[in-house]
């Protein structure tokens, strides 16, 4: 008999979590203006709002923190981090930042200007925010198949080469670079194939354009290439990652995901002009070039995390847990973005809450209902996150409206996933009675979902 699957780690320390009553949750949610970002964490039972900075670091990472060099300039911790990044990616120039959106802010301050167009496969919220705040356009070139949540294809996060060709043919002079997000978060944590990366590179070369990777979950993307794409089954994750980055000119990374640290990020590139152009903004916004908003101990933990999470067993444990939650939802017939993604399950709210009109934000309503049901905090990736059109100021209802359940790395067991699945089933079973959603009472002009205030309709 074949042995069952088990995690590739054992538990050394635990943190208590607490249940609450529905009556308590109703009041807490009202106090938070029906925005789960505004809930204190102690009011949450199982927290799936994000996988960013919420993972459990390893014993080696904690040990590395004790060896952090806190020198202001030239810390040994920076050079350990730089050497690790260069070995994994091939990029010579490295600028540390305190997290991914800071990396975008630093690099985009140099690269993105008013009137520019940045084509990419589903820019995530901070990426789009940093582009649009500079009065530029984030142009989505994701494959159309990503819009059909029930379609099962292996690389649903791909950029569409025809769409990329079309935007470059008409607007090449306005394109500072091409963005590829690996994995594609907004489309449901879906991976990008190596073949697609080659195609994007070839098109970029024809038009003399550079390619930037949003690399927050590059290791998970490499895992999917290994397990789904022909010719890569016998390659290591590190070998696959190195090939992936060979098709890019640079990267930004929120290390809070695939490096499994609580804080940290960086820019890396093979081009000295990008490095020289960005480094002044690092000093201005983040700190000196050899710490960039991070402590030495954080850089040590980041370097170790990058090494650990580019090993197959660690990724296999992580992605199998996401798939496990997907399998439980399959038992109950709950629709989500298929196949299961790398870091989260994305529930298709418009297929669940069919009586809630789009103007009342079905995914946010489903987020509210799941919290009320069991104290589980997810995150809307949909019409609220999409923000308003910067020109018309109308809500953007053209994309998917999803409830994301992002699973922190090495934090919860499959028993917790069972609780999540059954709680969702309970909401799903009473979906016909949910006929009204929420309306906005206050919102910020950009990236409104973090601070938006809502009320029940």
Helix segment tally = 15
The overall pLDDT, averaged over residues, is 96
In the CATH classification, which architecture of the largest domain applies? 3-Layer(aba) Sandwich
Major sheet: size, sense and barrel closure?
A: 5 strands, mixed
Report the order of strands and helices: HEHHEHEHEHEHEHHEEHHHEHHEEEHEE
Q: What would you say this structure looks like, in words?
A:
By secondary structure, the protein is an alpha/beta fold. It has 2 domains: 22-51 and 311-456, Aspartate Aminotransferase, domain 1 (Alpha-Beta Complex), CATH 3.90.1150.10; 59-308, Type I PLP-dependent aspartate aminotransferase-like (Major domain) (Aspartate Aminotransferase, domain 2), CATH 3.40.640. The chain has helices at 22-31, 59-65, 76-89, 100-111, 125-132, 161-171, 194-206, 218-228, 237-246, 272-285, 296-308, 312-332, 349-352, 362-374, 414-429; strands at residues 46-47, 93-97, 117-120, 137-140, 178-181, 211-214, 250-254, 265-269, 344-348, 376-377, 379-381, 402-406, 438-442, 453-456. The strands form 5 sheets. The protein has a 5-stranded mixed beta sheet, with helices on both faces. It has a 3-stranded antiparallel beta sheet with strand order 9-12-11. It has a two-stranded parallel sheet with strand order 1-10. α7 (194-206) links the parallel β5 and β6. α3 (76-89) packs parallel to α11, α4 (100-111) packs parallel to α5 and α4 (100-111) crosses α10 (272-285).
């Amino acid at each position: 008999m074949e042995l069952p699957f088990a995690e590739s780690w054992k538990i050394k320390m635990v943190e208590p979590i607490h249940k609450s009553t529905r009556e308590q949750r109703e009041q807490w949610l009202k106090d938070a203006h029906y925005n789960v970002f505004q809930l204190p964490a102690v009011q949450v039972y199982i927290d799936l709002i994000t996988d960013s900075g919420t993972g459990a670091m390893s014993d080696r990472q904690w040990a590395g923190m004790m060896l952090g060099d806190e020198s202001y300039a030239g810390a040994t911790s920076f050079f350990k981090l730089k050497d690790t990044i260069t070995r994994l990616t091939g990029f010579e120039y490295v600028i540390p930042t305190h997290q991914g959106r800071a990396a975008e802010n630093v690099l985009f301050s140099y690269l993105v200007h008013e009137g520019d167009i940045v084509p990419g496969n589903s820019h995530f919220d901070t990426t789009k925010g940093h582009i649009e705040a500079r009065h530029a356009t984030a142009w989505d070139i994701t494959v159309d198949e990503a819009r059909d949540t029930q379609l099962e294809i292996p690389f649903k996060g791909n950029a569409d080469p025809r769409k990329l060709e079309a935007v470059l043919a008409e607007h090449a002079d306005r394109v500072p670079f091409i963005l590829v997000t690996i994995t594609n978060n907004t489309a449901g944590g879906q991976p990008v194939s190596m073949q697609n990366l080659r195609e994007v590179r070839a098109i970029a070369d024809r038009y003399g354009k550079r390619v930037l990777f949003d690399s927050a979950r590059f290791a998970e993307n490499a895992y999917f290439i290994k397990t789904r794409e022909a010719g890569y089954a016998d390659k290591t994750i590190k070998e696959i990652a190195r090939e992936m980055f060979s098709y890019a000119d640079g990267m930004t990374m929120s290390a809070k995901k695939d490096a499994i640290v609580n804080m940290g990020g960086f820019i890396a590139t093979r081009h000295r002009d990008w490095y020289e152009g960005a480094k002044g903004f690092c000093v201005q916004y983040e700190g000196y070039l050899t710490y960039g908003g991070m402590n030495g101990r954080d850089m040590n933990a980041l370097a170790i995390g990058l090494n650990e999470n580019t090993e197959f067993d660690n990724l296999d444990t992580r992605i199998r847990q996401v798939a496990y939650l997907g399998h439980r939802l399959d038992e109950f017939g709950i629709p989500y973005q298929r196949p299961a993604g790398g870091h989260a399950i994305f529930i298709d709210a418009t297929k669940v809450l069919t009586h809630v009109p789009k103007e009342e934000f079905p995914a946010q309503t489903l987020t509210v209902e799941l919290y009320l049901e069991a104290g589980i905090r997810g995150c809307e990736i949909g019409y609220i996150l999409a923000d308003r059109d910067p020109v018309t100021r109308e809500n953007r209802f053209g994309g998917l409206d999803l409830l994301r359940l992002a699973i922190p790395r090495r934090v919860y067991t499959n028993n917790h996933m069972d609780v999540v699945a059954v709680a969702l089933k309970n909401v799903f079973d009473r979906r016909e009675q949910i006929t009204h959603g929420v309306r906005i009472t206050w919102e910020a002009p950009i990236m409104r979902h973090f601070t938006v205030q809502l009320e029940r309709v």
